[in-house]
Design brief:
The complex is a heterodimer.
Chain A lengths: L16 H28 L1 H4 L8 E7 L8 E7 L12 E10 L2 E6 L10 E3 L4 E3 L6 E3 L4 E3 L8 E2 L1 E4 L2 E6 L9 H4 L8
Antiparallel strand pairs in A: 1-11, 2-3, 3-4, 4-9, 5-6, 6-7, 7-8, 10-11
Chain B lengths: L1 H14 L2 H8 L2 E3 L9 H20 L9 H10 L4 H28 L8 H24 L3 H14 L6 H9 L6 H33 L10 E2 L4 H12 E3 H4 L1 H22 L24 H9 L2 H25 L3 E2 L6 H23 L8 H4 L12 H12 L22 H4 L2 H10 L13 H12 L12 H9 L12
Antiparallel strand pairs in B: 1-3, 2-4
Helix pairs in contact in B: 3-5, 3-12, 4-5, 5-6, 5-12, 6-9, 6-14, 7-8, 13-15, 17-20, 19-20
The chains are: A alpha+beta, B mainly alpha.
Chain lengths: 189, 497
């Protein structure tokens, strides 16, 4: 019995029926992967894309205006506007409210402008001090000393019907300070 | 016995694993590598296995929810039988793992094991180090307490400094606009699925390459690595003077592995679990968050860097270090392996160790942090008030009430952010003291707006009294000369006995 010698396919003649289907299979899987990638990537980036165009920010009440005596700085807490069932206590957000005079306020984020530790107000010396790396700020939020490169973050506020409300909803960080979103410049030392 | 052999043969006929396993176990290694210096790799693997087991055990109870994680840790500590011990094993295991991985890395570097042909083994090792640190950080987050909460804030603040995409990176990291439930859940996914999966894959590759390429021979001064000849030399070494890894070298690995397991268990039993500290409630602001042991050096660095250097250092520094570590085997892939002929390598390792050690030590004292309760908790020592005038005592009161103590120590109590003021009158004249108090400067806030002239006078009078009895206070001689013309000469304060 003689067998036909197997002829190796020449480079120009590589596309066999099986080879074609394998390539088609790869292409088909590539397409399926792309179809799957759209919802997967969309899901992964949802926390970023929702934040566009101030998507997280809304006005939240801090309390009645007479809870904040003139010339004093008081700690206030508000509920973060976006709450998920598993958030626990983390949505209770503190902030420092300084009533300068009348309806003129300054509402400072609790987070140090250096690396976000909670600053504490010392009315006797008129300073905010940070326990982490030693940042200090004056009563108007301006940088006094230490590693912060700027003053405290400020929330935009308004007083309506005797109620102090602030625009909040995002963790203030040096990269995206709340004040910078509204075009307000931080107070300078 | 025969039955067991038969069952074994039945399985191996189907699995066909006995021969390759025996081959791997008995592969010849250079005799001089059966050394106590060569046990750290297997020790790191041992600790990793402990972390896997204890981690799975903790997951039986732990709840990755921002509302319940903290109380589930409390339940582990106090309600579940031996829950405290498993938590302690996992916590101490993480410390041991970082330490052993670093020691392993220093050892292979000093023994030239990163050189040809083991470059890729080194690079994968670098990724394993990064994953180990990633596990340490994400694990710290899962212990969802105050330190974890504010530590996340620090991580977010660092990430936000990335140009352009910083805010997006923060939201991706936190899973939302703030540190909340979604944040903990994604760190749970990273700590429990993503990074361990990668670790298992990379550890497998790392060990496979050690088996395929052979363990690094004991470096001899003068035995130069060359790409062209090394493989043949190594083969000759193992075939002429080799010994089977099992049992010739493995017994040291086994002894050290058992020792490490017992050491972790001992630490866990004696010191107990880490935390959790206070509840992750952002409204509790009376807290001074601190990172876990292996990030303390970073904490110190972030406090001590000049503000302008901080962002470039944070963003560019890690990239440079990682690129440097990856390029290392290509930059020095040949040549001497022995540390005895590589002084720069030895100095580099020592420098890094001393730097990290110093920063870590400093971060245990945090001299840069104000002592937030010093003004109300640390009274001025008696000897500084004894026999002083009414004005000076009033100044001492101002000194306490205005929180000066939070940053300045007296008699070794109080903050260390600013200089100790025990002998300040020797260093500064009254005029300089007034200027420093009112205008601040250096690292001190200006107190001009917060002190009345009377308070400033009293405070400076008190500060002027702070000098050793044997040293008179500093004075401006030119001032006295000028004032003496106008007959306004003031009498300087006399040193007290």
């Amino acid at each position: 019995m003689t067998t036909k010698p197997v002829i190796a396919p020449s480079p120009e003649d590589t596309l066999s029926r099986r080879g074609f289907f394998m390539k088609l299979g790869i292409l088909f899987n590539g397409f399926a992967a792309m179809v799957l990638a759209v919802p997967v990537v969309g899901f992964l980036l949802s926390s970023v894309t929702r934040g566009r165009a101030n998507g997280y920010l809304s006005w939240v009440p801090l309390g009645r205006i007479d809870e904040f005596p003139e010339g004093e700085t008081r700690l206030a807490t508000f509920l973060n506007p976006n709450v998920m069932p598993t958030d626990g206590k983390t949505v209770d957000t503190p902030c420092w409210v300084r009533r300068v005079a009348g309806e003129k306020f300054q509402v400072f984020a609790i987070n140090c402008a250096h690396l976000g530790c909670p600053v504490r107000w010392f009315p006797q010396s008129g300073l905010f001090m940070c326990p982490c790396h030693g940042g200090a700020y004056y009563r108007d939020g301006a940088r006094a000393s230490g590693p912060p490169e700027r003053g405290l973050f400020e929330y935009p506020y308004k007083v309506e019907n005797g109620l102090v409300t602030i625009q909040a909803g995002e963790l203030p960080t040096p990269g995206a300070a709340i004040a910078s979103l509204t075009g307000e410049k931080p107070p300078c030392a | 016995m025969r039955v067991i052999t038969k069952i074994g043969e039945w399985f191996d006929h189907r699995l066909q694993l006995a021969a390759p396993i025996r081959e791997a176990a008995e592969h010849p290694v250079p005799r001089n590598t059966a050394s106590w210096f060569y046990v750290f790799g297997s020790a790191a693997l041992t600790v990793f296995l402990i972390q896997l087991v204890t981690g799975i055990l903790l997951a039986l109870i732990y709840v990755p929810s921002a509302g319940e994680a903290w109380s589930s840790l409390q339940a582990l500590n106090h309600q579940v039988t031996l829950g405290w011990f498993i938590r302690a094993m996992h916590g101490w295991g993480s410390n041991f793992m970082v330490a052993i991985v670093l020691i392993h890395m220093a050892q292979v570097f000093l023994f030239g094991a990163h050189k040809y042909p083991r470059e890729l083994t080194w690079i994968i090792g670098v990724f394993l180090l990064l994953m180990t640190l990633g596990m340490a950080f994400t694990g710290q987050v899962l212990r969802f307490d105050q330190d974890a909460y504010w530590g996340l804030g620090i991580g977010a603040s660092i990430a936000s400094r990335v140009p352009t995409i910083g805010p997006a990176v923060v939201k991706l990291m936190l899973g939302g606009p703030i540190i909340a439930g979604a944040t903990l859940s994604r760190f749970f996914a990273l700590h429990v699925f993503v990074i361990p999966g990668m670790l298992i894959a990379f550890v497998g590759l790392h060990v496979l390459m050690v088996l395929k390429l052979g363990i690094n021979e004991w470096p001899m001064p003068g035995r130069i690595v060359k790409r062209a000849t090394y493989d043949a030399q190594y083969h000759a070494m193992t075939s002429k003077d080799g010994a089977p890894f099992v049992p010739y070298a493995v017994w040291k690995d086994m002894f050290f592995a058992a020792f490490v397991i017992l050491a972790i268990a001992g630490c866990a039993f004696y010191f107990g679990p880490f935390g959790p500290t206070g509840q992750p409630d952002p409204t509790i602001i009376q807290t001074a968050p601190k990172p876990d042991y292996f990030f303390l050096w970073l904490y110190a660095l972030l406090s001590l860097l000049p503000p302008s250097l901080e962002t470039p250092f944070l963003l560019i520094g890690p990239v440079l270090v990682i690129i440097g570590l990856i390029l290392l085997p290509f930059l020095s892939g040949e040549g001497e392996k022995s540390w005895k002929r590589r002084p720069i390598a030895v100095i580099t390792v020592l420098m890094i160790a001393i730097t990290l050690g110093t920063f870590t030590r400093m971060a245990q004292f945090t001299p840069w942090s104000p002592h937030m309760n010093a003004w109300s908790g640390d009274p001025i020592p008696d000897r500084y008030i004894h026999g002083t005038s009414a004005l000076q005592r009033q100044g001492a009161l101002v000194f306490q009430v205005k929180q000066c103590r939070n940053c300045h120590s007296l008699g070794n109590t109080g903050g260390q952010r600013g200089p100790a003021l025990d002998g300040v009158a020797v260093r500064l004249t009254p005029d300089q003291l007034i200027r420093q108090v009112i205008q601040g400067g250096g690292n001190m806030p200006a107190y001009g707006n917060n002190l009345s002239p009377a308070e400033t006078t009293a405070l400076v009078a008190f500060l002027e009294s702070l000098h050793p009895p044997t040293q008179s206070p500093a004075r401006d001689s030119a001032r006295e000369l000028v004032l003496s013309d106008g007959q306004l000469k003031t009498s300087g304060t006399q040193p007290r006995p």
